[in-house]
Amino acid sequence: GTASLVNHLKICQKNHAHICSTQSELTYQVSEDEKEGFRLFMAKACPRFTVPSRTTMYRDIIAIYEAEKAMLRKYFIESRQTVCLTTDTWTSKRQQSYMVLTAHSIDSGWKLRKKIINFVLVDGHKGDDIGKSLEKLLIEWGIERVCTITVDNASSNDTCLAYMKRSLTNARSRYLGMRCVAHIINLVVQDGLKIMCHPRNRIRSAIKFVRASPTRLDLFKKCVQLSKVVSKGLINIDVVTRWNSTFIMLETAEKFERAFEQYALQDPNYKTELEKTGPEPKPDTPDQRGPPTQSDWVYVREFKQFLQHFYLLTNKVSGTKYVTANTFLEDIADVHFMLGEWSDHVICGDGEIFKCMATKMKTKYEKYWGDPEKMNKYIFIAAILDPRTKESHFFKDMIEDTYGSIIGKRILTSSDNEFVSLFGEYRELYGTNTPRELASQARPSANASENSLVRSRYN
């Protein structure tokens, strides 16, 4: 019979689809499959499989993309799920503006879904341009119910959110705008790093010098052995605009303090070159030039411990496989208490630099989270829905200690009213047909919440 031949043809089609999917997932160029080495490998591994040409590969990858897009669009239209959107914009070296749009939703099985649905060119970074692009994309995807749109701190996003509030007609659009918690933490820490710029810059210059040539790096590795430093990794330079990479740089470099001291003895050009590196010192400001000093390493050890909490906090709130909104309020209070404690911390006989740093960070904190009336009410509602928090004494004490007794009581009353109103809206939408026996299979790490400063404060 011909049944075996029909099945063989189906297998061939699946193999062809698999190689296209693999090509997309591994972000290889379509020309990779035409290279002689890959074709020889496939000829040995599966002689009966014919490797497609780059033209065929490109055409089929586009076809797979369109099919997946159609399935996702059908899901949005038929399920009518409320989605949360996150968006960000970039400008390329060619001065072209790009925008990424990510949709987060909970499906009928109570599983958290995250899909990057668009990465497109936009006319510019103006609020109206971004708003019009968002409106067009939502219509294209058939998305009607939007809970929140998470944006960064750019002023143009205020205009964008105002435009989207007019565009979306659902009642909850009044709480549409959500500031990215991770982005605000980044701004807070960046302000603190400006105060600690001198030790950081000297260490960064030392790392740049060592990694400038293979000869210097080999000499540094010998110094590591001589100083008996035990570490799996090696020093790396940071990305100036990403403070978490600065934290990793300082954390790693601090382990190699003795190796840097040994290197200064081995290379006479080390100190001479570093004393020429960096800007001229301004009046009444420390000189940023020269190799790292003993006091620099002391500051780095203290500052590293301080940054570590922000580093772990950023990783927690940036999670995509579990819900993070229920701990936002606790995270905000955590930052508040930590900055307050750091302001009173004195170390090394020179606590002024740390007090100044904490004060500057607190000013940035107050700009975004100092006034709860300007914060999205979903932050408080999500905390109430967390079974570990609810409207407990912990919840009430945390708010009153963070914002004061008078403002705290006002927040508690307004949050309770908004929660009742939101519950009424969902009851009208879904009635009693929502499956109650299902629970989300993706959960955040328990340690992330249990180890917070706020919970330890009230335990």
TrEMBL record:
<dbReference type="Pfam" id="PF14372">
    <property type="entry name" value="hAT-like_RNase-H"/>
</dbReference>
<feature type="region of interest" description="Disordered">
    <location>
        <begin position="438"/>
        <end position="459"/>
    </location>
</feature>
<feature type="compositionally biased region" description="Polar residues">
    <location>
        <begin position="442"/>
        <end position="459"/>
    </location>
</feature>
<dbReference type="GO" id="GO:0003677">
    <property type="term" value="F:DNA binding"/>
</dbReference>
<dbReference type="InterPro" id="IPR025525">
    <property type="entry name" value="hAT-like_transposase_RNase-H"/>
</dbReference>
<protein>
    <recommendedName>
        <fullName>hAT-like transposase RNase-H fold domain-containing protein</fullName>
    </recommendedName>
</protein>
<feature type="compositionally biased region" description="Basic and acidic residues">
    <location>
        <begin position="272"/>
        <end position="287"/>
    </location>
</feature>
<dbReference type="InterPro" id="IPR052035">
    <property type="entry name" value="ZnF_BED_domain_contain"/>
</dbReference>
<keyword id="KW-0238">DNA-binding</keyword>
<feature type="domain" description="hAT-like transposase RNase-H fold">
    <location>
        <begin position="318"/>
        <end position="426"/>
    </location>
</feature>
<feature type="region of interest" description="Disordered">
    <location>
        <begin position="272"/>
        <end position="292"/>
    </location>
</feature>
<dbReference type="InterPro" id="IPR012337">
    <property type="entry name" value="RNaseH-like_sf"/>
</dbReference>
